[in-house]
Design brief:
- This protein is an all-alpha fold.
- The chain has one domain (about 5-290).
- Helix content is about 80%, strand content about 0%.
- The chain is built from 14 helices and no strands.
- α2 (about 35-55) packs across α11 and α9 (about 180-205) packs across α11 (about 215-235).
- The longest helix has about 45 residues, at about 270-315.
Length: about 325
């Protein structure tokens, strides 16, 4: 898969996440966050599993048996990160407003390169840091955070961004080792749904009639966000590094704002539109500069190889 196709997958993923934000918010009118996530990811599992069995059936057994321990490790790490990230985000929406949630969630953008350095000793291209700054400033303007009050749920959102960052990192590492993104996305959804169900049974009231009242929000957030989007994320991160991918995913706030404008008739101010523009600039710059550096290095390598071949030809 080429990088351009990976970019398309990342953008479609971000669009789905952004528009699903409304469904996630309205889907808890009658049920708790754990119950919502349990139903949502169950729908995601049944959406992706048939596609995985059709398109990846021949590779599943071979891929898992060849590196079974590594596969299980990533399933646990990514499953727990996704469970905690989505649970904290859903819970935070009960205590804070969307503006604060949008601003603090984007903290995963600077957290990704920091965690990459501490976990894998991996440094990112210097141009990523100005792009991160533009991204945070853009979300600040987009969310109208300057007019919002600090609320109890903001701490939950910041903690949530740490687990989102871990999930993005592990997704990139997984795709370096395996080539079954659909089947893995299905298992990941099942893992999160199972954990959510267990804790919802303990801490929340499971009421089928109330769950059915939120069926439209669950189906949208489940099939598209919990299923298709997380599958496309795996495809995207096959050719896009973790830090630039995190900046692309920050467009979630832009798509959420546009969806709110179209669906909920929420007015976009001048600051909101400037914020959208800054995030777009951050996304574009995060992709251009590192690739330029890579292209320059590749050119130097090719020139050295050509000189070496010419020298060997002359000596012979």
């Amino acid at each position: 898969m080429t990088k351009s196709l990976s970019m398309v997958c990342a953008l479609v993923t971000t669009f789905i996440w952004g528009t699903a934000f409304i469904a996630q918010d309205t889907g808890m009118d009658n049920i708790g966050p754990l119950t919502f996530n349990s139903a949502r990811f169950t729908v995601g599992f049944f959406t992706i599993l048939p596609l995985a069995l059709i398109f990846e059936r021949k590779k599943i057994k071979l891929e898992i048996l060849s590196k079974s321990k590594l596969f299980i490790k990533y399933l646990v790490f990514m499953g727990v990160s996704l469970f905690l990230g989505t649970f904290l985000q859903q819970t935070a929406l009960q205590y804070t407003n969307i503006a604060n949630a949008a601003f603090f969630t984007v903290f995963y953008v600077p957290i990704v390169p920091i965690l990459l350095f501490f976990i894998y000793s991996k440094k990112v291209h210097w141009s990523i840091w100005p792009a991160i700054g533009l991204c945070i400033l853009g979300v600040y303007l987009l969310s109208d955070f300057s007019n919002s009050e600090i609320m109890l749920g903001d701490g939950l959102v910041i903690l949530c961004s740490v687990f989102w960052a871990l999930h993005i990192i592990f997704a990139g590492k997984f795709m370096e080792e395996f080539d079954i993104p659909m089947f893995y996305a299905a298992l990941q959804a099942l893992f999160v749904a199972a954990l959510s169900f267990i804790f919802s049974f303990i801490f929340e009231e499971l009421n089928i009639s109330k769950i059915l009242m939120e069926s439209s929000s669950i189906l949208y957030a489940g099939a598209l966000s919990g299923g298709i989007a997380f599958t496309l994320q795996m495809y995207a991160q096959k050719n896009i590094e973790e830090a630039p991918a995190a900046i692309i995913y920050s467009l979630e706030g832009v798509f959420a704002a546009v969806a709110g404008w179209i669906i909920l008739n929420q007015f976009l101010s001048t600051n909101n539109m400037i914020g959208c523009l800054l995030i777009l600039i951050a996304v574009i710059s995060s992709q251009i500069s590192p690739s330029s550096k890579i292209s320059y290095k590749q050119l130097q390598k090719e020139l050295k190889q050509e000189k070496f071949c010419n020298k060997q030809k002359y000596l012979n």
